[in-house]
Hints:
The protein has 323 residues and is of the alpha/beta class. Helices cover 30% and strands 19% of the residues.
Amino acid sequence: MAAAIAVFATVAPTATADIPEPGTTAQSVFNKPGPHPVATPVRTNPCQESVWGMVEHIVVHMLGNRDDMTCTQAFPNGLDSPIGVNTYYPADIAELPAAPLLVFTSGFGANPGMYDALARQWASHGFVVVIPYEFFNSLVYVPALGVATAVVAARDPNSPLYNKIDLNRTIFGGHSGGGQAALQAGTVFPGIASTIDPAMRVRGVLAIEPGPLAVGALVSVPTLFLTGYNDFVVPDFAWVRWWQYNLSFQAPAWIANARGVSHFSPVDGLDNYLHTGTALAWLRYQAFGDEVAKAYFVGPDWRLPADKTFFSVERNALANALN
């Protein structure tokens, strides 16, 4: 995010969703709160309460965002440590089976609180969500910090997440530089997961407008690339296709380019970020086997191509062969 601002300045399985009517969008079906209340120690405030946050606030609104962003006090938006991990989980997790883990990395220069609404939605649908951050948020050691935090919590008898994280259903996600880091994690972690924990298995990668320092040919787990028609920072026609999606031949991969989505839309409100429903549908499909969600991605009549939200959608041969 910071790099783009500089450029501008200089120039437990939840219930399966009801079967949607023909012509409905993933956004209208899945962009809804889940059945679980959310627990988190994270506290946010309007980003414009700091000088750095005010600059970010002005820029994203000039570039089309409609809602005000939220931030934590992590430096430079406040005086808290610039390095850490924010955790969200279902408040009723003690009554649920172990929950899948989503390790989501913020964009370059973005404050982790900007993804608070997304994290809360995912947690309300039964995920344990960890958001590791250290300002740059662009290399694999950042999601590794999230994994370490989750593993420690799952093994700590004093943690509410003790024995409540299902590492067998680990998904990496991220936006911009964080999407790049998530793809790097999808390259590195599948081969070493069992050495971290015998139960750990990487189920997929959610790469939202990812940076260029990742190669699709090296990712060995199912991957969804989300791009934006109005994104001039990570254009759909650039590296996200050239050496990421187009070179994804080890595992099923999808790419969806949404109309009206810019590079900063993921830090807008849930209703104004038009990929929100699609991201949740894919997560539910990968983590819970949700059949309605799966129908948007799998089968000869997969629903995503008919979804009017998208300018274009594609899937590779391995995704095409799924049933």
